[in-house]
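User: Fold this one for me? It's H15 domain-containing protein.
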Amino acid sequence: MSFSGEHAESPASADHSTSDVVNTPTKEAHNENDENKDEPSAKKRKPAPGTASSLNRSYGQLIQEAIVALKDRTGSSQPAISKWILSNYPDLQDGAHFRRNLNGALKLGVKKEHFTKVKCSYKISSAYKAIESAKKKRLAAAKKKAKLKEYMEANSLERTLELNAKKMNEMEKKDLDPETREKMKAELLKKEEAAKRKAEFEAKAKERAERLRRRRFPMEDTKLHAEDKELNVKPPADVTARPYLPYFWHATVPPNHPSRLGKTSGCILQASKVDGLDSGSYGLVPDLLHVYHFFRGDVHFTGPNENEYHPIVPDFTLKNLIFAVEQVLNGNARKAKLIPPLISHLFVTCLQVLFLPPDTSLVTDKNELKLRREIREFLNPALSPTSWAEVCSLYMDAMERFYSTDASRDPTVLPALAIDTEYLLGIKETVSIPMTPAIKTRKSNGDAPENHVLPEGYSAYLGDGASALNRAHRKLARQDPWYLTAEELMALLRALTEDILATNATISDDLASREEEMQELLRAKRSADAKFRKVRLAFEGPKKPRKSTSENDGEENAENEASNNGKDKSEEPFKPTASKKEFETAKRAQQKASEAYEKGIRKLVARTEPVGYDRNFNALYCFRNDPEVLYIEEKRPPSGIACSLPQSFHFERRSWHIIDSTSLFESFVSSLDIRGKRENELYEELLGPPGAQQSLRRFIAYDDVKKVKEASSRVKEMEQLRKRLEAARVKCSEEAGRRSGRLVGQSEHELFQIEEELKALEENDVPEEGANDILDYDELTGLNTLRLFETSGLKDHRRTREVKISKTRYVPVLGCASLVGTGNIDGTGMVGMLVAQLLGLEELCESLRPWNEKGKTRSEWINSLEGTVPAWNSMASESLASGDDTNAMDDNSGRRDSLDSLGNGSSAKRRRTDSPRATTSQTGNAFSISSIIATIKQSLLDLEERAATITNAAKAAQDAELADDNMSVDASDDDLAEKEKLEKIWKRFVHRIKETPTKKYSEIRNLLVSAIGAARQAHIPDIVAKLRSALLLHHPNAAGECKEAAMRVLEDCGGYDPDEDEDYEEADDDNSPTEELSEDDIPSVLSLEAAILKSCLSGSDDASRADWIAAVKSAKTLSRVAALTTAFCEISQIKLLKICDERDALTDAIKMWSTEEEKKPRKKAKNGMSSSTSMDPSEVWTNVHFSDDICMAKVENYPWWPARKCMATDSTIAESLLRLDRSLVALVGEMGGLRVVKNDMLRPFTGVPTSDDHGEMSKEVRSQLTECVAMARRIMRGVAKNAGPDN
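Assistant: Here's what I get for H15 domain-containing protein.
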């Protein structure tokens, strides 16, 4: 045995100097000692001089032998050691020299940790024992390896072949029969094959061992697990199997709910998966997360300036949005016929932001600028919580038209790759490209077929026809929103948020400022980290080297540890160069910078990146705004026929899962194999750096591990109390027989206390399932938060130290929380809000003109309208949470039926309707959806007719129809010439459409609109209707059908010959330079349905009042009726309020004129002229009766204009105007306006324009005057015809 570095003389030579290395005893000496021990002699033999066993031993070895032989547990003293050595080695003599060497050897052994000194005794140290044990193991391993090598060489393939060849030669020399010879050859060949197989196996084993030895961790995960499978290596023992992760929509059930452990319902599986990426759909869960992060998460869009404006949405959580979307998933929204108010509020808010006036400094494209202005003009008045679905559909239709048109103009649009599905999939199917012309060619004037303007594969705004966004848009055109699926709703909402991101300049500025702040925080954090590492190195010193992670043999690791054991002790101790105060200061600065960075991540990050990826590239997300749940996006293999396709053609299929409990978190962490790079990084991100308190586990809200521990402690406590209770009862029974009443009272008091403690503990141990009953649906879906947000003041004042800051709303609050009805007629509920709008407008009409309808009284009209509210409430569920338990999510699932159980808990707080539910059929109930919509439509038409009468728009429309009906053959020559001229104009425009190529679809639309206008001026309603039908067929990039329909209208009316038209001009050549179009010349992309919204009362340039009435009658969905109602109420309220001001202006003007009349004689006598300096009102209003008398009136800023005389129905106003020598007139061609003129400014109507001021009129005004004079002539002709020959 060797003892490295031991300085002691050999006992055989006192003059011998100490050496650094003690020699190991020879093998012969050990054998001689063993032989001496085996001799059966009772008498000890003295070793001969020079051959004694002490000659080759050092004093350290002798001391070690003495300690081992003495076997004292507490150690051996120096005298005992000396006595043993002298008694066992007589050749050594006791003396000063012996004691000095022995003492020096003991001191040196203690210093080298060979011995351990315990008080005055010595023991062999544990470190030395470990070194010796490692040496023994190494020697044993080397011996075993040598024997194995010797055996392998003896049984190697070369040796076997050599022996076989030798035996074959010997066999050839022998005289053997053929059968024996063949048998021996077969045996030799069999041995040779076995040797070859063995050699191959050993080579593979050697290669495997070599590969395992060379592996270094962490390594790439895919490569790691592929090698583990190839080399048959099992994962480490601490790596557990991947736990079952609940699906995303399990977030709506408690973590301990039994449905998570049972069979997952098909609805949850389908909603949590992301399929259909090939059609452009993102999936329900990604769309939901995108919407949440836009409003409340990473982007957190609040408007242009958070300090000046209120937030545009309430402070809802991700859980609120998930529960709200679940109401659509489980069918409660369809039963309640209501989209959850939180989702409706998000839709309304997005549309409000998109309808804001465009910033002309940022929007430079005239086409886009006109689109934004038209959307605001036509769609914004119709937007309300009840009509957002119809408005959203019309908005997306306009965007689809715009982007398909814009793509056709842009020559840089690249066509998509054309995939031959028949070749790849082996099937035949027609691949339809949405919003692209049909794949057929039409022959135009030339023989060459027309090419498509849009490239094949371009899907414009709505995407592929099979995408969720496209499906949702098609459904909204014919259904109410509660018939949409959750995926379709979220796809619509995501598209709206992406439009805001693309068009709102404040978002880009906000994101840029956020990025700068995050860069500053990151730089500060890195600087603080670097300084802390530097100070820690100066204070604590360098870290010890970590253990190797290579897969070496255990013997080699043990040897390295043992050999390095003594080296560390010999190194000099570290001397710190930094004080503890500096270390603490740097540590606090580093923590402060880290906290600021974490806070910045929660507030400033604009896009949440995954925390990390596991071995299968599944992403794990922790949203800093909602850190209570971890979300995992898991990849799924392709299914069906896609598996046979190449990898490059596979579309990703994913599913979303959650980690919402601490036990699940710990199980997932323990399943990570840190030998892989990705999972090692993910492991460090989840648990944080070693020793730091940054584990994501602290954010998990549901700590079931703690609850399990508390439950087990309660069980133990209850068991202990029960044991104490039994003991106390036994003690009471024992004390009952004794005479001492004091002991009996003490035992009874102790028994009573234990019973009370046990009773209190049992009462507190309430099962968790009972906690679900106290949850409230309004709180879960964010309805309470929305109500609080909407009821807050429009302005919020907060005072700082210096200034008073006022906050306003970026967009107005429309009250989506009122969509949930109370069951009463109070303006709540889907139908209740529409009824409240109509009743409010009717009250305004009643204040202007009392009800005078003959067929129905006002109370009957109101009762009929209000009756739709209870009828609707009887059909729909009162709340979204009151759906049937049997139909929620999935009938076969063990999961609770969404919010049904929660709704039962909160149902006591809500008012129920006892009337039975109605269905959509008229057979089983008194009301149906169609009957309710019909009642609302009739009330809307009645109210519109009443408002048109009050605003005099109905009389103006009646005069226009009268004029159209009386353009007959007995008209004057001028009328006939004008009629022929107008007929030629519309035919001229349609003929130009024939000469225009189909690819110039915008020019075709402009020509057709001009033709409709000319036909309307010519008062040919049949042609107008036919041309409008042709216009409905027009679509950007697909104008062929529209062109053909216009040509058929022209042929039915006799055609058009350009040679007979003197005003016909040839169209400009395509190659001629064209001037830049103004915004008015740019064709509109809005559909006719959008233009009709504003055409109530007096109509508009794009649609007439008759179109609006027809649209109301043909409306089949409540959303369409709500859009028409909202737009009508918005427009009518503006006009009626203006009429109220005009009525007050007329009253004030009469008072002013009366006062001037009284002062007129006195002032004329003084200065000889009138002193009236006030201006007459431009327009006035009062209830009037229109006479049949047509005259020419001179109104301020107008030439002499044809007008109809009116009589005020109010006798006071009529007498006042008669006394003031003034009259009320309505100008022909003006939609309902009344003017007050003096009687001397009235002239008889002559049928021709007055030539007094022709020189002062512009060409446009002169043309309008000519048209109005002609219209007045036709009105007079119609009045005379209606009056009969007697008059």
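One thing worth pointing out: The first strand starts at residue 76 and ends at 77.
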